[in-house]
Amino acid sequence: MERQQRWGLSTLTVLVLVTASCGLRAQVYGTPEPASGSLPPNRIQFTRDLVSKPWFQGWYTRITDADATRSIAVVGASQFLPYAQERENDAAVPGYLAIIVSEGDETHIYEAFPERTSFWSSRNAVPLEIFSEEWTRFEWNAEGYGFISEDMIQIAIPGGAQVHATLGQRLPWNYFVPWLGPEGLVEFLSFVPLHWLVYSLGSDSYYTFEPLDGTGSIASGFGIAHQESNWGEVFPPAWVWAQAVGLDNMRQLALAGGELVVGDQAITTWLLAFHSPTIAWEFRPTIPGSVFATTIDSCAGSFRLLASDTVRKLEIIAEAPPLSFVEVSVPTSEGYLPGGSESFSTTIEVNAFLRLGANDHLLIDTFEFEGGALEFGGRYRCDAATSRQ
User: Please, is 167 exposed, middle or buried when counting C-beta atoms within 10 Å of its C-beta (0-12, 13-18, 19+)?
Assistant: First the structure.
């Protein structure tokens, strides 16, 4: 059975517009002012102060080197669990760090759980300074492991691997409103328990990777970097995430969605973008007339999404070998635990149509990505539930 969800000018949409017009900003898990006098204005340094709920924030960067058929992802995150940790006066909390490397048909993951992590983010500059790039700046630090920022990565997991990388000019999610993320203005609603922001769909990058466990040699090269962030309470009950970039960086795809609990209401929602020389399309539930239909078969490594509105239709078909998935940890109410299955060996077909009539569509773009990323999480994982359609 296909799942469908239709959105129009709902109460949520109206609330988003009212919130934006009032100039309200999301200040969910941190203090509205910098916690350190050394931080410039508009930077939030997240601390334990006044935090009564679990919270996390993490950054994910994936560099694709088409020439070497290599893909390297770095994940850095911080998490605070009120019941498990005593409050302190500094901004350090435990965290999670992962390096995922795929080359050819082999994928390896190196994980660590730093005891002390901290970060700051300038996202608070939006929407007050919408013409400034200041909002793109952030830095995540893990004591003894290194740091991740919007333009540089220097991370080493002792006995595992290390990655050094630089990132160039970002490619925004929205061409016309560069500061706008996948959620649109919903990102700035504090009652939404989980958020997703894509910093760049494809930045030029240079990287160096070195195994520290004696299993390989140093590898380096040029690639294309996708960078994003999640923050909120914990990961949702079930989700799918996918990302891909063309060899020449002329086409990019990113999507995320699944089941989300807002207050006492469970909803299914999807966010996605596909950019090419022909189109630059984004879909989200608050666009009037949006309909999403999915077919999910995680045991077969298969996912299909059909997104449409009154004039557009975008079909996405993702297929990955079941044995190519590796297990990754995600934020839960008990800390970072295994909860996702991710593959970097995904073929993703994209077909874009314009609506000509009630049942007629014109194909205006089609493309097939190789070496894309696909992740199933929570109840959508193969070992968590039967395949669902």
Answer: buried
> Residue 312 domain-assigned?
yes
Q: In what order do the strands lie in the sheet with 70-80?
A: 44-45, 117-121, 138-142, 146-149, 152-157, 161-167, 194-211, 219-232, 55-65, 70-80, 95-103, 106-112
Query: Does 387 map to a domain?
Result: no
Express each pLDDT in 74-115 by its tens digit.
Answer: 999 999 988 665 555 556 899 999 999 999 888 999 999 999
Q: Are 271 and 183 in contact (CB under 8 A)?
A: yes
Tokens of 42: 């508009």
Dihedral sign of CA atoms 316, 71, 344, 150 in order:
negative
Residues 6+ apart with CB under 8 A from 371: 64, 66, 69, 71, 102, 244, 344, 345, 346
Q: Is residue 318 part of a domain?
A: yes
pLDDT over threshold 50, residue 10: no
Segment 308-323, tens digit of pLDDT: 999 999 999 999 999 9
The predicted pLDDT at position 389 comes to 42
- Range of 263's domain? 3-378
The answer to the question of residue 386 being in a domain is no
**SS3 of residue 59 by DSSP:** strand
| Per-residue pLDDT tens digits for 275-289 | 999 999 999 999 999
- The number of distinct structural domains making up the chain is 1
Residue 30 burial (C-beta neighbours within 10 Å; 0-12, 13-18, 19+): buried
Whole-prediction pTM: 0.87
DSSP 25: -
